[in-house]
C-alpha cells in the first residue's frame, strides 16, 4: 500500500484547507479489513467532513478504519524549521498484524509546510 498527500503543502490560517491531507493511495488486499494507526511527531491530526464542514481533532495520535486525515499547519514549526514525521501503520483489523508502515516527512520552506519528496 502507498499513501498520497493532497494538498501537499499548507499555510497556517489558509482558508481553503485545514492542513496537509494524507490518505491511502492503494487498496488493502482483497478480503482484508484494515485499520490505520497514525502518529505525528508534532502538531495535530484531524478529520474533515465535506458534508457538515466540521473537523474532529485527534491530537498527535489517531486510529481510523478509513479515509483521510490532515496534519494541521503549525506556524511555530514554520518559523523553527523543524521537520514533522507522520507515521502511518496499516494493520490487519482482525489480528493486528502490521501490513505496511509509511513515514511522511513534512518540512518548512520558510513560508509554508510541505511534504518532502
What does this structure look like?
The chain is mostly beta strands. The protein has a single domain (3-115), classed as Immunoglobulin-like. 5% of the residues lie in helices and 48% in strands. It has one helix and eleven strands; from the N terminus they run E-E-E-E-E-E-E-E-H-E-E-E. The strands form two sheets. The protein has a six-stranded antiparallel β-sheet. Strand 9 (84-92) and strand 10 (98-108) form a beta hairpin. The longest helix has 6 residues, at 75-80. The chain is globular.
List the helices and strands and how they pair.
Elements: E1 3-5, E2 9-10, E3 20-24, E4 34-40, E5 45-48, E6 55-59, E7 61-64, E8 69-71, H1 75-80, E9 84-92, E10 98-108, E11 113-115
Antiparallel strand pairs: 1-3, 2-11, 3-8, 4-7, 4-9, 5-6, 5-8, 9-10, 10-11
List the keywords.
117 residues, mainly beta, Immunoglobulin-like, 6-stranded antiparallel sheet, 5-stranded antiparallel sheet, 11 strands, 5% helix, 48% strand, globular
Short description:
The protein is mainly beta.
Strand order of the largest sheet: 2-11-10-9-4-7
Q: Show unreliable segments.
A: none
N-to-C terminal Cα separation, in Å? 18 Å
Count of alpha/pi helices: 1
Q: Which structural class do the helices and strands define? A: mainly beta
CATH class category label: Mainly Beta
Largest sheet: 6 strands, antiparallel
